[in-house]
């Protein structure tokens, strides 16, 4: 199994973020265009309510623009956006829970926190063998929602273990253990 490496440029992120902080609307639009797709895909791992996902993305970007002068410099825009978006989405889902629109978090986990198994969400797996690729998808479906989210953040968004732990608000060790178990499950399933 090969992992498709996405290109990432820290200096580009620093420059783009700095330009945006100084009011460059072009830089702000570029940040939006480069990252909205990742946020949308990440959001649909938690809920099927597309309007809620869009609202949360808009809220994050509105807040960034309004508070741009106070924001700290970042060398990883995607990490910043993922963490901000996840917090906003969880806050919105929690509000819904209070209004009895979601029966319980376990229901949310069971129904909404599953990955869409389209090729788009598994593009980090580069494989020419169709049978093996299908087998990987079948195994991937059986992973826990936490394992899927960690794989998504690690390989699809190239976040570090530290960044994943911050986004998911769990320990770095928990991230490492969940990823290790997921990769062992994938390897065992593929070798059968």
UniProtKB/TrEMBL annotation:
Keywords: Sigma factor, Transcription, Transcription regulation. The keyword Transcription applies. InterPro entries: RNA_pol_sigma-70-like, RNA_pol_sigma-70_dom, RNA_pol_sigma70_r2, RNA_pol_sigma70_r4_t2, RNA_pol_sigma_r2, RNA_pol_sigma_r3/r4-like, WH-like_DNA-bd_sf. CDD domains: Sigma70_r4 (cd06171). GO terms for biological process: DNA-templated transcription initiation. Residues 135-186 form the RNA polymerase sigma factor 70 region 4 type domain. This is RNA polymerase ECF-type sigma factor. Residues 32-98 form the RNA polymerase sigma-70 region domain. Belongs to the sigma-70 factor family. ECF subfamily. GO terms for molecular function: DNA binding; sigma factor activity. It comes from Zhouia amylolytica AD3. The keyword Transcription regulation applies.
């Amino acid at each position: 199994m090969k992992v498709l490496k996405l290109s990432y440029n820290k200096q580009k992120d620093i420059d783009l973020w700095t330009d945006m902080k100084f009011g460059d609307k072009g830089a702000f639009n570029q940040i939006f265009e480069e990252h909205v797709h990742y946020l949308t895909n990440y959001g649909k791992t938690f809920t099927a309510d597309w309007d809620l996902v869009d609202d949360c993305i808009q809220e994050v970007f509105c807040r960034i623009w309004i508070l741009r002068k106070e924001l700290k410099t970042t060398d990883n825009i995607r990490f910043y956006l993922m963490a901000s978006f996840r917090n906003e989405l969880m806050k919105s889902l929690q509000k819904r829970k209070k209004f009895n629109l979601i029966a319980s978090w376990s229901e949310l986990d069971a129904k909404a926190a599953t990955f869409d198994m389209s090729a788009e969400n598994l593009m980090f797996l580069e494989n020419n063998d169709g049978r093996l690729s299908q087998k990987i998808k079948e195994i991937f479906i059986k992973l826990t929602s936490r394992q899927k989210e960690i794989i998504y953040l690690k390989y699809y968004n190239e976040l570090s273990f530290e960044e994943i732990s911050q986004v998911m608000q769990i320990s770095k060790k928990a991230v490492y253990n969940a990823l290790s178990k997921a990769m062992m499950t994938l390897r065992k399933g593929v070798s059968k």
